[in-house]
Amino acid sequence: MSATMSRMAMIRLGALAASGVTLLGLTLAATAAPRRASGAWTPDERALLRSLSLSALEKLPVDPSNKYADDSAAMWLGASLFFDARLSGNGKVSCATCHAPEKGFQDGLPLGKGVGTAGRRTMPIAGTAYSPWQFWDGRADSHWAQALGPLESPAEHAGDRTQYAHVMRAHYKNAYEAVFGALPDLRGLPERAGPVPDSTRSHAWASITPVRQAEISRVYANIGKAIAAYERTISFTPARFDRFVDAELAGQPHTPENTFSDDERAGLRLFIGKANCSTCHNGPLLTDNHFHNTGVPQSTNGAANDSGRTTGVRAVMASEFNCAGKHSDAAPESCSELRFAVTEGSELIRAFKTPSLRNAVTRPPFMHAGQFGSINDVLAHYNRAPTAPAGKTELKRLRLSDSELRQLEAFLKTVVSPVSFPSRAVSTSTTPK
Amino acid sequence: MRSTYSGHSNGISGLNRRLASFKSYRLTFLIVAVAAFSGCMAWMAPPANLDYSRVRSSVGGQYHAAIKPEGDSIPKGKLQKWTLHLETANGSPVDNATVTVDGGMPQHGHGLPTKPIVTRHLGNGDHLVEGMKFNMGGWWVVKFHVNTTAGVDSVVFNLKL
Fold first, then answer.
1. Alpha carbons A406 and A429: distance in angstroms, whole number
2. pLDDT in tens, A367-408
3. Tell me, which fold does domain B55-160 have in CATH?
4. A4 and B106: CB-CB below 8 Å?
5. Which of A16, A87, A156, B14 could form a disulfide with A114 if both were Cys (CB 3.0 to 4.6 A apart)?
6. Chain A 14-33, CB below 8 Å of chain B: which residues?
7. What is the ipTM for the molecules in this complex?
8. Quick one: A72-235 is in which CATH superfamily?
9. For the domain A37-60+239-420, what is the CATH code?
């Protein structure tokens, strides 16, 4: 591709050399297109701004793999499960341990800390129901499949599916059966058993008949589906950025609640123009929900070398809990993201999912293993576009000045708002629905 | 640019003005060259002469092709089904082709975010293409590689999202 780009550059330069007027005009267009003395927005910029406002967010997509996704009884069951530390090997770790509501459903740590230390940074939850892929590497293709990963991970909840089935029967029998039907008979089953790395529990799992294994796994999948029904309600509320855009496009006068400073306005122009941020951070959630190698350095926090989407796509294709699997409620032909996923190629190496930039400035440290401690570090990285530790970075050097980086930071601070979620289960400092 | 230049060159002779203009030209050329080769292509506009039409001839001239995306516009970030219509150069529908799909963003150096597949031959030269998706705005190319007993050829479409 680089050869193609070089050829294009040569053609471009040749054409420009033929006409000084064209050269000047195109240079201006290339280097200063977004800037106008009047501060007005072009039609293309207005369309782009409209697409970034939370007002443009469509209704939640249907998850065909989870027929309980929009069931309110499942949602409330999921809310309880989300905060229940009995769903862990040591009885001390719940989903909310790392996905803390008061911190925007993340933990502020470089690497998640459950029973042990996870290999990556905890991702926030708001708006992720719009993504076809979950986790930094997209190794789950639904919220419910995502929820099941940490529950059996030795570093996170460190439990197992037989243990969780016992928890459901002991503490959630009525709520579970009201949504999913009768729980299976668990008499005679080990207290702890599952397809986990721990040899005692994996051997215990192997001793269970396939029929009973399937029953337990069904309960396990349903735990994920209930948690997913809760997680998909966790959403962003409008930020000052959204109010600014909506007022700006409507030609309404700005009030203190929807105005931008000169730096914030300049930062927005950079965001959608020269700094090229909105290429990947697009749409009202400011993410393309895809995977990119942005040359992020290796972690110095103890995380292992990470190949990103390369291993993530293999995991999701092989997962018993994917959209096409036996626990999914979807017809296999409706699992389009899975059917048409790119499963190999150098572009997957060290490619990680684009996170939403909503509330991003409130969530240091940054990147998939907390490699950068401040938003300044992140912006400096994108400005510098260093060589990737593995694979090839998609970044191009930006050559932004210090003042432009400051303006970008000022803009990003306008995209901050409370996260909304059902309030019956918990009380936190964030704004409940 | 011209008025700015005149302001700065007030009082210089015509020769010097032409010389300064030449220097300005060289400086601008240098800026573009640096921009082009240093990787600033990502935020440069696509080439001005791109053909965005949805009816194209193949590179070798063996086939004519037309794409019909769902709806009038191509949305970002959503899987779509397209219909690809194929004809021979003399206008006969092509129904027996093996068609593969690839593409990407030339200015970004990456391919398509999905692996689209021709899932059905609909007859009369029409082929159902599933799994089309574009996750970013900008210039995309989509290439259909058509293989029949008559030969192999590729059709390239430009898209602007």
1. 29
2. 999 999 999 999 999 999 999 999 999 999 999 999 999 999
3. Immunoglobulin-like (2.60.40)
4. yes
5. A156
6. 16-17, 20, 23-24, 26-31, 33
7. 0.84
8. Cytochrome c-like domain (1.10.760.10)
9. 1.10.760.10
Q: Maximum distance among all alpha carbons in chain A?
A: 85
Which among A55, A229, A223 is positioned nearest to A125, based on CA atoms?
Answer: A229
Sign of the dihedral defined by the CA atoms of residues A241, A242, A248, A252, in that order: negative
Q: Which candidate in B114, B134, B139, B141 is best for mutational testing of the A interface (most A CBs within 10 A)?
A: B114
Local structure of A152: helix, strand or coil: helix
Rounded to whole angstroms, the Cα distance separating A311 from A108 reads 25
Report the residue of chain A nearest B36, measured CA to CA. Answer: A9
CA-based nearest distance A415→chain B, Å: 20
Dig out the tokens for B98 from the structure.
């093996």
Domain ranges of chain A: 37-60+239-420, 72-235
pTM: 0.85
3-state secondary structure of A102: helix
- Kindly determine whether residue A13 and residue B33, on different chains, have CB atoms separated by under 8 Å: yes
Q: Which residue of B has its CA nearest to A292?
A: B110
Give, to the nearest 10 degrees, the angle between helix A2-17 and helix B14-37. 170
Q: Under DSSP, is residue A217 helix (H, G, I), strand (E, B) or coil?
A: helix
Whether residue A337 lies within 8 A of chain B, CB to CB, comes out as: yes
User: Facing residues of A420 across strands?
Assistant: A235
A37-60+239-420 matches A72-235 in fold: yes
